[in-house]
């Protein structure tokens, strides 16, 4: 099995979580005033779950905040990109960067080529867009109960935890300290009443702390 096909198979674990989360976004987007074309376009061209949900929640605050908050949330992908380039040669950065979501980044820890990463990204992308389409066109039928919609929103966070926990090797592992540092930062901001800003801060602190721990471990090895 070549690298691309292996990546596509690996993407199945992400696709299972992306489909219901994408459907939830489709429902909420239409309910927020988006027409079907706009909702689908958001998933096709933005393809960033947390940022898309943030876009919906900030619409009432004006265009500036609707652009600024998703932009700040997505800046963490710069850190992801730097980490990826240290592990494998990236020949097509614009193509590869587009599909580098949080969950793809976690799964890509085992990658050995850019083509493998493309396979993971393609499976995740089609699942997210397909889920959005189902939410846009069938949301009223599928999500008539508000409780179901809330549980579907949680599926994205639940998916990330499922992918993260098996990759924590122990107390000396960068992933472990990244999760701890990000969680502490998010908790502090939440207790101060700035939950949204805490998510943004944690998205920077977590990856940067992981890089620091891994560098320190290499220096002492």
Number of domains: 2
N-to-C CA distance: 35 Å
The radius of gyration is 18 Å
Sheet with the most strands, sense and barrel status: none
Total helical segments: 12
Quick summary:
The protein is an all-alpha fold.
Question: Any overview of this molecule?
Answer:
This protein is mainly alpha-helical. It has two domains: 3-167, no CATH class; 169-221, no CATH class. The chain is 80% helix and 0% strand. It is built from twelve helices and no strands. The chain has helices at 3-10, 12-31, 36-45, 49-58, 63-74, 76-87, 93-98, 102-107, 114-142, 146-164, 174-191, 195-220.
Overview features:
Brnchd-chn_aa_trnsp_permease; membrane; 221 residues; cell membrane; 12 helices; mainly alpha; transport; 80% helix; single chain
Blueprint (SSEs and pairs):
Layout: H1 3-10, H2 12-31, H3 36-45, H4 49-58, H5 63-74, H6 76-87, H7 93-98, H8 102-107, H9 114-142, H10 146-164, H11 174-191, H12 195-220
Helix pairs in contact: 1-9, 2-3, 2-4, 2-9, 2-10, 3-9, 4-5, 6-12, 11-12
